[in-house]
Design goal:
Oligomer: single chain
Mean pLDDT: 93
Shape: elongated
CATH class: Mainly Alpha
Low-confidence stretches: none
CATH architecture: Up-down Bundle
Helix content: over 70%
Radius of gyration: 16 Å
Number of strands: 0
CATH topology: Four Helix Bundle (Hemerythrin (Met), subunit A)
Strand content: under 5%
Number of helices: 4
Number of domains: 1
Length: 130
């Protein structure tokens, strides 16, 4: 496997772990505290790095099904994290609204689907190349 691709796979998996932990912490606490913000921000940061590594590994920004899923999932996650930081700045440790919590769950679910769909698409491409 290409070293950049291997780094991208490792990085996106780390992003999945961090974002999952952050999402579960947000669901449990119903607040945008430091742990939640730290984990979710780290997850989005590692997913952004993984996306850059994937682009470098393929040498292309051309939209593919995998790319469209990944870019749109990253956008949803980024909107979620920005909304949580804004909530924290405006309301401190006040409880999150059901709407914001619902959006976070949708963003997470979409990203998990995109993660596994991307993995399946890459594996299928590797099988076809054999």
């Amino acid at each position: 496997m290409n070293p950049l691709r291997a780094a991208a796979v490792s990085t996106v998996t780390l992003a999945l772990v961090l974002y999952s932990l952050g999402t579960f912490a947000e669901r449990r606490r119903s607040r945008a505290d430091g742990v939640v913000l730290g984990l979710l921000t780290a997850g989005v940061s590692f997913d952004t790095l993984a996306t850059a590594l994937m682009i470098a590994a393929t040498g292309s920004l051309a939209p593919s099904l995998h790319g469209v899923l990944g870019y749109s999932a990253l956008a949803l996650m980024l909107v979620h994290v920005i909304a949580l930081w804004r909530h924290r700045a405006r309301a401190g440790s006040a409880e999150l609204s059901p709407r914001l919590r619902g959006y976070g769950l949708i963003a997470y679910a979409y990203w998990v689907i995109a993660y596994f769909a991307g993995a399946a698409l890459v594996m299928a491409a590797h099988r076809a190349a054999r």
